[in-house]
Write a structure and sequence with these properties.
Blueprint (H helix, E strand, L loop, with lengths): L1 E7 L3 H21 L2 E8 L3 H6 L6 E2 L3 H4 L6 E4 L6 H11 L3 E4 L2 H18 L3 E2 L11 H7 L5 E7 L2 H13 L3 H10 L8 H4 L2 H15 L9 E2 L7 H9 L2 E11 L4 E11 L11 E8 L3 E8 L3 H21 L22 E11 L4 H11 L4 E8 L5 E8 L2 E2 H11 L11 E5 L2
Parallel strand pairs: 1-2, 1-4, 2-3, 4-5, 5-6, 8-10, 10-17
Antiparallel strand pairs: 7-9, 7-11, 9-10, 11-12, 13-15, 13-16, 13-17, 14-15
Helix pairs in contact: 1-12, 4-5, 5-10, 7-8, 13-14
């Protein structure tokens, strides 16, 4: 049996998939007994099709793929939640299995996609939606299902991890590092999704849904980015025995699910602390398996295409063997989401203030008035001599109390109007 594929999207990942099929199709047949044929390719860019040598099976209308009764698996790689949603839902309703790398779609319309797949009796596979080439979706849906997953934490955005690494190791300011990341192709011309934590929020929504068997969408995830992080913050963190990562969190608590993305101070001894550059890592804790970590390149043509084609071959194997769809939507538990304002953790907070007496006393009074206990205070002068940086590290405090502290301290006359650096501390 030859399993026929329809590919929608010929960008970086789509091109990588075409290359893998060209280079390894015979090996797939010889090693695994799986024969996959690229039957149709759809793109808005004919030049990309010509570049990859698939102009003879090219179309600019994805309906040509959906309406082709010979196609068994549709691969959606255009991204977004509009046309891509039409492609994925249309393919499933047309009786085709679907493989996608679309994190935004699965984090926004995942329930609808999974339900449509179930109703059609077809498979939906989305390994490449999180972590690029790192196997994480399949292990969580299969290998780890004997566990109660208690925690998932991840560095799931290579752009910001690269930027924070450069800022820490080379004392480079945010603007310079962002420009370098854009020049190297790690960051988009509009870096908002990366640097504001939105990309990571989509990924942790998907992981949390699988880990806790409860539906989490991107709108449920509190997201903060790295725009206010400076080399000084990273230097102070290192002096304290920490590093700073943009971390995606998903934790099972007595109150419900705690899901968030923000810069986080991690002890240098933590496994995630050593993950630098464009690499990603996802740290999963289960009640039986204990601590596990999945590590690798999180983006790029090769890694993402590897994950996509892994899904394609697995679905093709099921088709050839007559195996019905495997684990679909398991979000049967309706666990409550813990509001961000109820979060309890430690905080690193750095203010720029006028170099005058009485400032520390006034600020200490604000912390005390909101019942936020301070663990330590660090003061560093600035070159101009007129201002200083004052850094507080709190004991465990409630988020809404810390926000109240920030609001009241901002009203003090001697506090400069710069945005304070706020980094939550994970021990």
């Amino acid at each position: 049996m030859t399993v026929k594929l329809g590919l929608v999207g010929t960008g970086t990942v789509g091109g990588g998939c075409i290359d893998i099929l060209k280079n390894h199709r015979e090996e797939f047949k010889r090693h695994y007994g799986i024969d996959v044929e690229l039957a149709r390719v759809c793109s808005r860019n004919p030049e990309q099709a010509i570049e990859h040598g698939v102009e003879d099976i090219f179309t600019q209308d994805f309906h040509d793929i959906l309406d082709d009764s010979d196609i068994d698996i549709v691969i959606e790689l255009i991204g977004g939640t509009t046309v891509a949603r039409d492609v994925v839902l249309g393919a499933l309703r047309a009786g085709k299995n679907v493989v996608t790398a679309n994190k935004a779609l699965m984090a926004t319309h995942g329930e609808e996609v999974m339900r449509t797949a179930e109703e059609a009796g077809k498979e939906i596979a989305f390994e490449a939606s999180v972590g690029g080439g790192i196997p994480i979706i399949d292990p969580m849906k299969h290998s780890l299902i004997a566990n109660r997953i208690d925690s998932v934490m991840g560095i799931v955005n290579g752009t910001t991890n690269y930027m924070l690494t450069r800022m820490a190791e080379d004392d480079m300011p945010y603007a310079d590092v962002l420009a370098e990341a854009q020049a190297k192709g790690f960051a988009e011309a509009d870096p908002t999704a990366d640097v504001d934590g939105l990309d990571a929020a989509a990924k942790i929504a998907i992981l949390a849904s699988i880990a806790f068997n409860s539906r989490v969408t991107i709108d449920d995830v509190h997201a903060e980015g790295i725009r206010n992080i400076t080399p000084l913050d990273l230097e102070i963190a290192k002096d304290m025995g920490y590093c700073v990562k943009l971390l995606a969190h998903a934790h099972r608590t007595e109150e419900g699910i705690d899901v968030r993305v923000h810069p986080t101070m991690l002890p240098l001894s933590h496994q995630l602390a050593t993950v630098n550059g464009v690499y990603n890592a996802i740290y999963v804790v289960g009640d039986a398996v204990g601590e596990t970590m999945f590590f690798g390149e999180g983006a790029g043509s090769g890694p993402a295409a590897s994950a996509v084609m892994g899904d394609v071959l697995e679905v093709a194997r099921h088709l050839q063997a007559g195996i019905p769809p495997f684990v679909g939507c398991t979000c049967t538990d309706k666990l409550p989401l813990v509001p961000m304002e109820e979060l309890k953790t430690k905080y690193y907070i750095r203010f720029a203030v006028a170099d005058r007496s009485g400032v520390l006393a006034a600020m200490a009074g604000v912390f005390a008035s909101h019942d936020v206990s301070v663990h330590s205070v660090i003061q560093r002068g600035k070159k101009d001599g007129n201002s200083v940086d004052i850094t507080y590290v709190t004991h465990t405090a409630r988020e809404k109390s810390v926000r109240a502290v920030l609001a009241d301290i901002a009203k003090l006359d001697d506090v400069l109007r710069e945005e304070p650096s706020v980094i939550r501390v994970e021990d």
